[in-house]
Amino acid sequence: MKSPLIMDNLPKRFGFRPGGRAALNSLAREIAPGRGVGLLGRNGAGKSALLHIACGLLLPSSGTGTTVERPCGELDAPELSPIGFMPQENAFLAWMTVRQQLDFTANFDPAWDRAREQRLLDDLELDPTRRIAPLSVGDPRKLGLILAVCHHPQLLLLEEPMSALDPIVRTRLMAFVVDLLREDGSTIVLSSHLLADVEKIVDWVVVLDRGELALNSALDDVPDT
């Protein structure tokens, strides 16, 4: 099985001047298939830029990125189907109920798994009859996860998935992601500020620091400091 995510000499700069702010500095990295990867770093380290390039929401300033064997900038409907993405800030149709948003999204993907959807609604205690606009802070995160995984993605990108969730829901979410690795054989990349948020899920750790690759290691080999 080929790598679902390859970054080759991949910088990303914001601004039109040559010295524009760098989010990534010529990053080179290949994610092995079937792996759970923790993408760690402080705010501004480049985590979001990397994930957004991987799913085609941003274009690299130069270099090449390949997602599910397709250049990141050329992802279209057929290539997006094997990708699941949970952004840190979801853009839902606020006037819809949770059920309407789920049905709306499911209509675009014949692989949508209603049994998985219901399991997650139950496990995450998300009421499908509620309107999206007044949902509490953690509930949109739950909905974002359900929308990202119910089509059985080959590559799952989770941006700060644990933020705004209470400890009980965090535990349930982590258990589900572990099940997902086993059930679908998905490659999963989870970004976080803290190793503690992802260490029970991942087997590999990538640390970014100001756009540079600071660590690329098996979880068991990560230094205690």
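The above is record 1. Record 2 follows with the same two-line structure.
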Amino acid sequence: MKGRRPILLGIVGDSAAGKTTLTRGLVNILGADRVTHVCTDDYHKYDRKERARLGITPLHPDCNYVDVMELHLERLHYGQPILKPVYDHATGTLVRPEYVLAREFVIVEGLLGFLSPTMRQFYDVKVYLDPPEDLRWVWKIKRDTTKRGYSAQEVQSERERREPDSGAFVRPQREHADIVVGFSPPPGIAPEEAGARLDARLVLRPTISHPDLSYLLEKEGDATPGIRLKLGRDQGRPADLLEIDGGVTAEHASELEDAVWQHLPDLRPIGAEKFGAYQDRNEVRHSQTLALTQLLIAYHSLRKYGDLAQLPFAPAVAALSRLRSAPVSVPQVR
């Protein structure tokens, strides 16, 4: 990484939207030795008991050290280490901070990663996960009752308490994403019955350049479900819409994955069991649409990494000073 800063990939979405699942596959695809993973949910000011006493949810900015997130994103952007706080989701407590080094790729995922203009300027690719609410809550109940010690009734009660903050602070971040990913059940299938056969829809906004994916598209007369790319609108604005059928066969999905791998010359293909995996309660399952989505997002990150090869590594002092009223210590180029 000599002379080249890291690539920052941001993944934001509401609780249980699939951020950690998506990140896990990306780390395996890009290579664990090349990726730094940071979760912004570690920046909570209060532990679980304190939040209950104060009547505040972890989705509210006042419950998080947003200013520290901004400073740490700046440092990671310039390849500098951070001392990151750590929140234990299993126990709801704040534990010893962790010393984190910035590798070639930095994946930052969490609830509030795109909250402020200062935070957003440091990302190279911004992804927002946007599953239907009924599907997200199926996922949340499964996760929180299995891993975090809640009862189903407690999760439902928390849903009502969190909804105002979700609507005010989390969902508006969708507006700032370069790619919006939505997994949804096929028509006529209930969320709790869809399992791995979820359709995927990627909104590719013109805020960044996107790779040519025409080699993946269904050929005329091909009855096998696969991938479709069309021009459409998202929230009234033009965007490319990439659709991946949940009913794609394992054989056809493998052909599509092989086609993407051929366009990733900097990576060595890994086994299908290392990406596309998700946890359904205590069972690990595989999703073809998740695997393809992870590959395509890794493709974007690698393209950005290649773009930086020709650019000088120089901190944008003027831009930083405009966004902050307080003085900023900018890392020196060596």
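Residues 288-308 form the longest helix (21 residues).
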